[in-house]
Please model this.
Amino acid sequence: MTNKGLTDGNGLTNGNGLTNGSGLTNGNGLTNGNGLTNGEGIGGYSQIEIKSRDRRRKFNSLIVISLALLLGGGCVYYVWDESTTDPIEIDGKIGDWNGFPKKELEVGNVANSNIDLVTIAAHADPVYLSLLTVTKEPIFHSETGDLLRIFIDSDNTTETGYFLPGMGANYMIEIYGQRSPVNDNKTVYSSVLYLFDEDRDNNDWNAFVPLANIEVASKNDITECRVPLFDLGVQRINPVKIAWQTSDGSGLTDLGEIIVGVNTEDVVISDVILSFQRESVASSSDNLAIDGYFDDWRFIEKHLDNDWNEYQEGPEVVDNPNVDLMEYVSVSRGFDFFFYLSVHGDILSGTTIPEDGPKQQSSYSSNSNNIDVISPISDNKATEPELKGDDTIYIFLDTNPTVQDGFKVNDSFYANKLIEITGQYGMIISSKLYNYSSTEDSNLWKWEYYREVDSAAYGNELELMTPVSDAFKAYYHLISWDDSEDYSDGFWASLGTSGARTDPSWTKRNIDTNFGGATAVYAIDVDGDGDIDVLGAADTANDITWWENDGNPSNGGWTEHLIDGSFNSARDVYAIDLDDDGDIDVLGAGAGGGDITWWENGGSENFTEHTIDADFSSAYAVYAIDLDDDGDIDVLGASNGNDVDYDITWWENDGSESFTSHTIDSTFDKARDVYAIDIDDDGDIDVLGASYGDDDINWWENDGSESFTQHGIVTSFTNANSVYATDVDQDGDIDVLGMARGDDDVTWWENDGSESFTEHLIEGDFDHAYSVYATDIDLDGDVDVLGSARRADTVTWWENDGSESFTENPIQTNFDGAETVYAADIDGDGDIDILAASNEDDDIAWWENTATFSFEPSWTTYSINSTAVGAESVFVADIDGDGDLDVVAALSGEEGGVTEVAWYENDGTPSNGWTHHTVKSYTGTGINDVFVADMDGDGDLDILSVDGSGNDDKVLYHINDGTPGNGVWSTKTVVSGSNANGATAVHAADIDDDGDLDIVAAFSMESNIAWFENDGTPDNDDWTQHDVYASDSDKQPYDIDVGDIDGDGDLDIVEADQENKVRWYENDGTPGSGDWSSTRIKGGLSGVISVAIADMDNDGDLDVVSAAYSGNAVSWHLNDGSPGDAIWTTYTVATPTKPTSVFPIDIDHDGDIDIVSCAETGTSSNGKVRWYVNDGTPDDGWTTNNIASSIKKPSSVFVADIDNDGNLDVVSAAYNDDEIAWYESTAIPEFSNIMMPIVSVLAVVGFNYRRRWRE
Model:
């Protein structure tokens, strides 16, 4: 090693670290021909042999790699000579960088000082690009290894290379090292120059492929390396940009905030990011704009994410806050929809470098003399999938909820559109809208690019805008680069309105209907099995009871367990672990015996009674909390007795459940309720009470030693009955709520932070207001109020709009003697359910929050014709074949009006007017019914009508020649005269199954039903009449419908007999023979005038719906699969006064059939159109919703999507109003409660979903 600089005291012998077992002799790397002897110069354990590959058109890779190896790739230098020369030497010293510009970086922004970048510099000489890195502490000195990466933009453009904010890296130097396994020296294991494959995506980390070894030296905190300009394909004068990044392999990283420019300007990365995010000045307008400024969203109410939705079995913490949803919403402005979301971290803050480990790492063996060989990455891209560091936001859109067409998110959500937004470092990389493209399988992840989406992000917020449709359902799904993810609840939006899946709706479930004099209810997991059980107190039965929830409470899964059956006049119940033994104990207040008692849970829900106080007269309320802050649970009580001297009392627990009584107030007459919380935020527990006798709501301030000072909140709250406290306005202090039976008031008192209270009335007419509770019922982030009214028999919640303006929402209005209320997630589905006790019904009940993806529809009325004299019947169909739905009407012409069949042309904007066209005018009165069908098979729709006025009654067929708007319709008579006497209804169907449509008609005066056979040439007036039954004076058919009632493949007929019956007539396959057998479906229905067929119970056979005009009933009749039997079961849907028409259809798209009906409802001017909601159990009650009111004698309804927005609208005819009208639904169809978790979908879609490969 003579004359080579490494002997004679110059660094590598005589105690300077490289002999005598200290690292580099005896087979460990630099002797025996493996490195620094005989003038070879390039040894060390980290030497890498690179296999040749043709990756670049600029030069021949084999030559470049060979030259790189000859020039010293992969070296490890341990340089101890302090001398420097110019130009720059790669020796681990900084002295030769004097005079060259260096960039000082932010220090202390990363927890690991060994990778904390301090100084960086770059210098190009005629041959090399030299690079300097200084860290706060020595890099490559950890046991697990450190990485230094230097990115080089050789063409000074972001259009090529790997994306970094402000540059596109065509090359990357990656240096990996760690502390030597056998001593304290650094060891560099790899130092490789990588080339970016331009054929791959510019965010794909795996697109870097190895090109050559590079020369490196690292000493203490200084690391130097250099790469030949020839390898980079540049000359000394070319502009080049360079960025630095370090990593310690544990997830900590430091990206230099400055991109160094050689022959070009430096770039500050944060400035680049900000320029991507938004303009420097916000818009002055308050209108929504996609600009990265979010003040324009501040007054728009948003949905709060609760980390528990239909995709999850329970609350889940999102590991990465950058994809942990906080709020979201979508609203319309005109026909554009704006989307908003925020996260708990930073939005779209993925990393540009998604890999902590080195791309290549040689293995270390302390006795190896061999040079490690690391092969380059294979050319087969399928073996190296995309690896990206971007965060992704998916917005699934279902714009056509009536059709199961799209990617299956769950059973009721098929996404036909998808918005995909990707980003890194808060910058949006791509923002695109896709249409679903698979026609084969709804589980395939196949999307076709449609267009770019305007979007902006800043901080933790994102906004975007795109036209979508008039209405849609949506889900957000956020995925971070490290595979953390979060989902929103479902939400919906339509023009002018929006809502969330969490908007509550309620289904009553009984727990116990024989709990005599139920007074109080509470909910807690009594048996520790993970679900919520229920406790109750009953003053008539003298019972304290708990009901065990078996995990299926919606289906009656409750088991009753009596705790005490002789607790005299049990008034209140509470539960807590009183003895601190890990299980739930129970407390009760007994008014009759004057008892405050607790029942000790022995660990298996066997309870032992312990009396706390047997002389607490008229004990009315009980509560438990650690009042004295000594670590055990104390007890409080309220006494409803007259002139007792212990109205509000607490019992001090000595730690062994021996209790000492302390009176808080002895003059609080007829104390009805007690509660405890830290009102004044001083660290101790204060007490609140409600006085029925004094009309007071008071609080008693605890001075910290359980000496209490009384403070009045209100002194004129007549018959104060209940009190509760929480931070209603979320301003950081505790507010108070109360119920007053005498005043019928529900009130809250706002705490100004210094315990001065301002009264706010929530409800002033809540008859005998009894019990109050408060929690976030609708999960929108604010506190709502729950209450009961004993005389009004009502359980109600008041929705807080976020500014303490409350809207009343009744839950139950016939819960007799409603007393205590409580709220908890009884069924463990993530939303809030309601509990209440009914003193007069003896009920303990809960109301399941069955919040689906819906809200009660709102309806907007539009007139089609306000001079339609005697409007009798309507039918909806596309008469002119232009793609939108028109309306056909029968006008009976009463009081001198025009008697005609008319159609009203929809020009595509049905809210802005209709064009009237006459089909046929008549003299006299009496057009009763119309029906639309293509009778002649020519592709356009014809019209059937009946005239039953008694003046030449007839059934008519009006032929559409393809130009229905020209006023010329050819009319053919099907039957007239005595054979058509009293014609009331007409229908078209293929009765004889010969491929053309026949006509069925009802004749009330003739007392028969007939069908008229179409021989295939209906325009020739050649119709053959077949009676379904001969004239029968006992029958008076008024309406008919046609369907296969018995499921035998031919069409049967159902009849509404306006005398009192519903019948069906069986077609035996030979309908022309006159042999139709009759079965009575239901008798005793007075004045049946409307009938329809539908599968009401989803059992696969057709049921029947009827309207009894004189009998005041809308009913459905159950077909049990054997309809020929004499007995059908009839269920009452509703009892409106004088119902005139029924139309069964799934109006809310929830999978079951609802009913739309109209009724005169008493006075001639108070008619209504109503929608009866089928909740899936049509034999167990229906919900009534008004669509329109104050209609004069509505006579007919029809349901169809008039405005083509995907929602079903309603059309009606009003006989005395002389009006044809339609009612636009602005509701979004609901999501099913039967949810397929999206995580299950991901399991099917698998890798394709995660990495977003599209076909």
User: Anything to note?
Assistant: The longest helix spans residues 61-70. The longest strand covers residues 186-196. The mean pLDDT is 83. Helices lie at 61-70, 229-232, 269-277, 1238-1245, 1247-1251.
